[in-house]
Amino acid sequence: MKEQARIVIGADGMRSLVARSVQAPTYQAKPVLTCAYYGYWSGVPLAGAEIYFRPRRMVITFPTNEKLACIYVAWPISEFHTVRAGIAGNFLKTLDLAPRLAERVRQGKQEGRFVGTADVPNFFRKPYGPGWALVGDAGYHKDPYLGQGIMDGRRGHAAPESIWSTSGRPRRSYELPPGSDHARCNDASGTAELLENELLEGPQRRSNRHLSDLLRDRSLGTDRSCD
Ligand SMILES: Cc1cc2nc3c(=O)[nH]c(=O)nc-3n(C[C@H](O)[C@H](O)[C@H](O)COP(=O)(O)OP(=O)(O)OC[C@H]3O[C@@H](n4cnc5c(N)ncnc54)[C@H](O)[C@@H]3O)c2cc1C
After folding, report:
1. 81-128 pLDDT, tens per residue?
2. pTM of this prediction?
3. Which of 66, 85, 185, 210 has its CA 20 to 30 A from that of 173?
4. Is the beta carbon of 17 within 6 A of some atom in ligand 1?
């Protein structure tokens, strides 16, 4: 079967077939920095999202559907094999670094199993060209520690005015509008550097505060407290 369209939008995630088909160039790539496991608990009271920075660890919790709490723990990728060898033990040991949260979690009940990933690379792809555009993770994938992927996907980076001419037909030549790509690169490289150089490199109160401020600035409409 063959389908034709004036423009094809690749909203097909970080392994985008559309991106591969058009050979969208990748740039500002950084290797995987973290691994993470998360799970869902009932009976864990949370007023909103809670974020805990600990040396080489990060814990994020937030309330979700059916009164469950989602609890996410990230470690440096170098520790993935150790963490995976004893997921529950390592998860709870890390939660113990935030004792008030650990106590609430131990009083609750885990619903379902742990889910983990060590496959969270960081890269940009050129987000549009003749007859195609990439949105969401297909155009820009990053470590989930900032919880920013959905927001960035909604913002979109494939400026429509660069793809469509005023006649409503796709343009034949494509240039990035001044500043558009620059802005997303600046935004991303700042946060990636924070993660790589500071959070993963050791306990630094100053940088943790910096990261907390950043997360507050990027509020997704939920209460967040950082410790
Ligand atoms: C552990 C983890 C925690 C995260 N936490 C957060 C968070 O708290 N907040 C946040 O904002 N973001 C978070 N993210 C990031 C967020 O999940 C992604 O940024 C977001 O899902 C990207 O959406 P998308 O639609 O671009 O891609 P995807 O969600 O990957 O969706 C792509 C879709 O395309 C489909 N597809 C792929 N190939 C094809 C094909 N050839 N044909 C047809 N369909 C195809 C896939 O099946 C999939 O349904 C997290 C990510 C991870 C891994």
Report:
1. 999 999 999 999 999 999 999 999 999 999 999 999 999 999 989 888
2. 0.81
3. 185
4. yes
Cβ–Cβ under 8 Å, residues 29 and 121? yes
- The residue ranges of every structural domain in the chain are 8-31+121-221, 34-117
Q: Alpha helices, DSSP H only, in 164-204? A: 180-193
User: Residue 28: is it exposed, middle or buried by C-beta count within 10 angstroms (0-12/13-18/19+)?
Assistant: middle
17-27, pLDDT tens digit by residue?
A: 999 999 999 98
For the record, the structure tokens of 128 come out as 């549009």
Q: Say how far apart CA 13 and CA 103 lie, in whole Å.
A: 37
Cβ-contact 157, 180 below 8 angstroms: yes
**Mutation pick for ligand 1 pocket among 15, 150, 222 (CB with most ligand atoms within 8 Å):** 150
Residue labelled with tokens 């150790």: 82
CATH of domain 34-117: 3.30.9.100
